[in-house]
Write a structure and sequence with these properties.
This protein is mostly helical. It has one domain: Endonuclease III, domain 1 (Orthogonal Bundle). Helices cover 53% and strands 3% of the residues. It has a two-stranded antiparallel sheet. A hairpin with a 5-residue loop joins strand 1 and strand 2. The relative contact order is 0.17.
């Protein structure tokens, strides 16, 4: 019988982490410092929506390694600035050395920036709107394992959020993309139960006053 694949991996620093973080130093840092920790900053939330859109059909490690360059190309993902960028700039952006050269995805960032400005005017902030869709635990697994996490790609709240954002004119915001956003920005805590980062994420969420 084949050995069971471990839920956690222990790095050369002696720290146990969720199995998916073992593939690269970038993943390890992302796991320890970002993934699953709650975020209420509008610019960071917009950046993550944009990056998750770029990831569609690609690997996250590719996007993660290009993130700094994408930040430079897209004005730090400051949606107030991006909302003023003209469609004629798409060609220039596509020629940026670090760019993921997908015209629809580049245009989506500019479109969504304009939608984000509208949302802030209507809702007060992106965070205030997005955190309304925080899953409350109903119907979620009581204990996360590797197998559960690999197959859990969306939830009812992500599907509802996707539907509403599309209604408001956002693009590249499918349910799977938005569930990945929820995982990364701490709307859900999907660190495995034995992972030390899970407790840190939970403690931060309990202290956080959501918008």
């Amino acid at each position: 019988m084949a050995d069971k694949v471990p839920e956690l991996v222990v790095g050369d620093d002696g720290v146990a982490r969720c199995w998916w973080s073992a593939g690269s130093p970038e993943y390890r840092s992302y796991h320890d410092r970002e993934w699953g920790f709650p975020v209420t900053d509008d610019q960071r939330l917009f950046e993550k929506i944009s990056l998750e859109g770029f990831q569609a059909g690609l690997s996250w490690i590719m996007v993660l390694r290009k993130r700094d360059g994408l930040r430079r190309a897209f004005n730090g993902f400051d949606f107030n600035r991006l909302a003023r960028v003209r469609e004629s700039s798409v060609e220039r952006l596509l020629q940026a050395p670090v760019m993921i050269r997908n015209r629809a995805k580049v245009k989506s960032v500019l479109n969504n920036a304009r939608r984000a400005v509208e949302m802030v005017k209507e809702e007060g902030s992106l965070a205030r709107f997005l955190w309304r869709y925080e899953p409350k635990g109903v119907g979620r697994p009581k204990r996360l394992t590797r197998d559960v996490l690999r197959t859990m790609t969306t939830c009812a709240e992500a599907e509802a959020l996707s539907k509403e954002l599309k209604r408001r004119g956002w693009t590249f915001v499918g349910p799977t993309t938005l569930y990945a956003l929820m995982q990364a920005m701490g709307l859900v805590n999907d660190h495995l139960h034995a992972c030390p980062a899970r407790a840190r994420s939970l403690a931060l969420r309990q202290k956080l006053k959501t918008p």
